[in-house]
Amino acid sequence: MESATVSNQVSVRKLKLAFCLYKYFPQGGLQLGFLHIAKDCQRRGHEIRVYTLDWVGDIPDGFEVVIVPVYAFTNHIRKERFSAWVDEALRHDPVDGVIGINKMPGLDVYYAADSCYEEKMCIVLWSVIPVSRSERRCGTTHPFGDSFLSGRKNCISRTINSCPIG
Fold first, then answer.
1. Statement: residue 147 has pLDDT above 50
2. Would residue 57 be called left, alpha or beta, if left means φ above 0 and alpha means ψ between -120 and 50 degrees?
3. Arithmetic mean of pLDDT, 122-132
4. What angle, 0 to 180 degrees and rounded to 10, lies between the N-to-C axes of helices 146-161 and 117-128?
5. What φ, ψ does residue 49 adopt, rounded to 5°?
6. Minimal CA–CA distance to 99: which of 49, 144, 145?
7. What is the DSSP string of 112-133?
8. Hey, how many other C-beta atoms are within 10 angstroms of the C-beta on 53?
9. Sign of CA dihedral 140, 143, 145, 148
10. What is the pLDDT of residue 9?
């Protein structure tokens, strides 16, 4: 393996990285996250290979994009075949790391771009549990007590504070 030098002059082993995502299109939030991570890895000297079912838009310089030729009547079966095809391809042409942008078996790293489950549950519970109009207006009490409300505030603030966009 070749070495790459980063800004602090530490020699780092150059890696071959495979990214797996079902579809790439330039307007997708998940896709933008993938592109940012892959370009950052490339900037650090690593080789980038992308396995996808469909790519719409320009391919960044230096990216090797492999369109996986699998078909099925249902998305579930198509994604199973995609995973199997990628697994077989990686046996013949291995990489140092497999990063999944979508959930699939055989990944070394899964980029979990899904929103926080805890946040979803806080919002769902808050919206379905009945409270009086005065309680809704002041926002200080809830049938489950102050701990429920403070938990919801903490949950939302953690999500907002960890948001990569702003």
1. no
2. left
3. 54
4. 140
5. -120, 135
6. 49
7. --SPPHHHHHHHHHHHHS---H
8. 21
9. negative
10. 62
- Measured in whole angstroms, the distance separating CA 98 from the mean position of its chain's CA atoms is 13
Give the domains, in start order, of the chain with CATH numbers. 3-110 (3.40.50.2000), 117-161 (no CATH)
Between these two residues, 59 and 141, which has the higher pLDDT value? 59
**Block residue for tokens 């979508």:** 102
Identify residue 150 by its one-letter amino acid code.
S
Tokens standing for residue 6: 């980063």
The residues pairing with 64 across neighbouring beta strands, listed in sequence order, are: 49
pLDDT at residue 108 tops 80: yes
Among 118, 121, 101, residue whose Cα is nearest residue 110: 101
Whether the Cβ atoms of residue 42 and residue 2 lie closer than 8 Å to each other: no
* List of residues 6+ apart from 157 with CB closer than 8 A: none
